[in-house]
Design goal:
Elements: H1 2-18, H2 28-43, E1 50-51, H3 53-66, H4 90-96, E2 108-113, H5 119-127, H6 131-135, E3 140-148, E4 151-158, H7 173-193
Parallel strand pairs: 1-3
Antiparallel strand pairs: 2-4, 3-4
The protein binds 2-acetamido-2-deoxy-beta-D-glucopyranose (5 copies).
One 2-acetamido-2-deoxy-beta-D-glucopyranose binds near residues 125 and 129.
């Protein structure tokens, strides 16, 4: 009960931030994976990854691109560590999330396909593959997760500007006005729920 209310609240918060401009998922797979990844980090004596909503936006967009493709289609998912997988329409996806490649290039995009997103398989897909080298790297401090269908995408972000996933209109006047109206929307949404 409490958790479904929290989920609804979260939905309102997200919807108000994004004006429902891209699909919002309130899925447990993503939370499970975040916890699993952070347990893995702690087991390696590294700090837990903090959530990065802008990276999650891009992860969601990329997962949306993979949706419907069979797991055997490894286009883009056979990544070489340290290189960005090639997504033909990455510039479009970045702009949907108000991101500039100059603030994302040091991040790491890691897509994986797991039938029905089985939670245990999903975690091992990141901790027991070449991706684990990225997780065992102090360079990365943040994470955004998105999923669609059988695909789940993890994006690691850094604390440097080149990998911060900072949006380019952050701090502008219109962004501040936007934030204010989003806050109002969120408060109204919360009131309705109480
Ligand atoms: C983890 O960190 C603690 C405290 O900094 C240290 O005592 C311990 O040896 C570290 N363990 C590993 C595996 O690095
Ligand atoms: C595999 O992925 C590529 C690139 O996204 C796409 O063009 C192609 O149609 C996909 N193939 C199948 C069988 O889904
Ligand atoms: C992205 O950043 C580069 C360098 O800071 C800048 O020249 C370019 O105009 C930016 N693009 C967008 C869409 O903001
Ligand atoms: C993680 O990185 C450290 C330092 O590079 C290395 O000693 C350790 O073996 C790595 N652990 C795993 C599980 O990859
Ligand atoms: C990138 C990666 O490791 N993908 C694997 C995820 O798990 C499925 C099923 O266990 C494998 O088929 C993929 O190769």
């Amino acid at each position: 009960m409490a958790s479904s209310r929290l989920c609804l609240l979260l939905f309102f918060l997200l919807a108000s931030i994004l004006f429902i401009s891209y699909p919002v998922h309130c899925v447990d797979e993503e939370d499970n994976l975040l916890q699993g990844l952070n347990s893995y980090r702690v087991s390696l004596n590294l700090t837990a990854l903090t959530k990065n909503d802008n990276a999650a936006c891009l992860a969601e967009e990329i997962a949306d691109q993979f949706k419907g493709q069979p797991c055997t289609n490894t286009t883009g998912s056979n990544t070489v560590p340290g290189t960005e997988p090639q997504f033909p329409n990455l510039p479009d996806l970045l702009s949907k999330c108000h991101l500039n490649v100059s603030n994302t290039r040091d991040g790491q995009i890691m897509p994986a396909c797991v039938p029905n997103l089985d939670p245990n398989l999903v975690l091992t897909n990141f901790t027991k593959t070449q991706y684990s080298d990225n997780l065992n790297d102090t360079t990365y401090t943040g994470v955004g997760i998105g999923s669609d269908d059988n695909w789940i995408v993890v994006i690691l972000t850094t604390s440097t500007p080149e990998g911060s996933y900072m949006t380019y209109n952050a701090g502008s006047l219109s962004a501040k006005i936007g934030l204010f109206s989003q806050l109002l929307f969120f408060l109204m949404g919360s009131l309705l729920l109480l």
